[in-house]
Amino acid sequence: MKKRIFLALCLVIVAASLNVAKAEYTNYTKTIPSYADLTGNKVYNENVKIGEYVEFLNGNVKVNGDLYVADNVDFSGDLEVTGNLIVADYVDFDGNVTVGGNATFGEYTEIKKTLSAKNVTIGDYADITTINITNFADIKMYADIQNMFVGGDLQVGEYFELFGKAKVLGNVYMADYADIKDTLYAYKSVTLKDYPDVLGQKFKVLGNLIAGEYYENSSRTYVYGGTTLGEYSDEKYSNFSGLFGKIDPLLKFNLTNTAILQLKQKVDNAVYNAERQTSQQKKKQVYAQLFDSLAPYIETESFDQTRFQALKKMYTGNATVSQTPYPTTSSVNNTQYKAYLPRSLEQKLARIISNLPSSQKNYILEVVLQKIDEVTSRLKNQTQTQNTVQQINILLGIRAYVQKELDSNSGGILEQLGL
């Protein structure tokens, strides 16, 4: 019996080894020789192996299969790989890198736009503008990352620097000398080894925070689990007070600091106006209008939505916003947009959205939603004429259509990115 169990375990280990090594032993049916210079757009409908010192000039590259890239290769445009991608050292990408499967990068990788993949391993000394990973990300030492979304766990090596805004739905582990210069949202636990600096704008941890020696933090900090800090730690952070102090950790992670301060001013003004009302019902109506206007800026995760709705109920009770001749944003769902959107405009929207680059589509749609909300809010504050009401109706129809496209595109992952 023990012998059979041992043999079964051996088979499992061998099978796992074969899966791990599958990319290494891919049958590359197309080889591009070293030192080649290729111009214009290129499409390869097979597994491709690229030699050293190859340059792709003035065009994009698409590989319908797996791709292996040797050292010192330059891509001047976008790279799209439907399978898995393996990249050696000193490879530069001037455009987006979109990978349908898993991606592995060697040392000194530079990506000037967005990297998208299911799982990724990135070698030392990486310099990447934006990372958008569906599942797991493993980033080695001395990496410089601007912005990041990771749908699973994140692991980084020593001397990691995050210059922009990041959201991680799994656990976060950072080795010594991690430096968070702006914003990090972690929806599980965070472990920071020795000498971590959290000196940016906002630091949010839903699980436990464990930090080693010489932990320094001056960001606005929200930790909902337990906190364990090593020796010589120094925390100097100061969060917003009042109602906005409760809303701040629920805001979308990629909002600019200017936008956050503008929302703070809106909240402060509403609180002031509510306190000036003589009846409790009018106070609740002021808060109801405020929370409706804040809704588009709240994170979509269930944790944030639940807390936001609880806050709204606390401040508004059963109050409703004054009746208007047009629907509210929330009342037009993604299947009712046709009632507010002319057929000709719907067809035009469909054409425009279909022509958007896939790697940037969700970011662009998210920006459109924010702009629609801003314009709609301004129109609602104007004197209501028949023309104004018609404009608002059309805007709400466009918003619902765009939201529908956003929800159906890659699970809404790229919407978390793009600053």
Describe this structure in words.
The protein is 31% helix and 25% strand. With 419 residues, the chain is α/β, with parallel strands linked by helices. It folds into three domains: 23-235, no CATH class; 240-323; 331-419. It has a 20-stranded parallel sheet that branches. It has a twelve-stranded parallel sheet with strand order 1-4-7-10-13-15-17-19-22-25-28-31, with no helix packed on it.
What does the secondary structure layout of this molecule look like, with pairings?
Layout: H1 2-20, E1 30-32, E2 37-39, E3 42-44, E4 48-50, E5 55-57, E6 61-63, E7 67-69, E8 74-75, E9 79-81, E10 85-87, E11 92-93, E12 97-99, E13 103-105, E14 110-117, E15 120-122, E16 127-133, E17 137-139, E18 144-150, E19 154-156, E20 161-162, E21 165-168, E22 172-174, E23 179-180, E24 183-186, E25 190-192, E26 197-198, E27 202-205, E28 209-211, E29 216-217, E30 220-223, E31 227-229, E32 234-235, H2 242-247, H3 257-276, H4 280-294, H5 302-316, H6 343-354, H7 361-380, H8 386-408
Helix pairs in contact: 3-4, 7-8
Strand content: 25-35%
Total helix count?
8
Quote the average pLDDT.
Answer: 85
Q: Which shape, going by the Cα principal axes?
A: flat
Please give the number of β-strands: 32
Class from secondary-structure proportions: alpha/beta
Number of separate structural domains: 3
What gyration radius follows from the Cα positions, in whole Å?
25 Å
What can be said about the biggest beta sheet? 20 strands, parallel
Low-confidence stretches: 1-24, 319-335, 410-419
How far apart lie the N and C ends? 59 Å
Question: Percentage of helical residues?
Answer: 25-40%
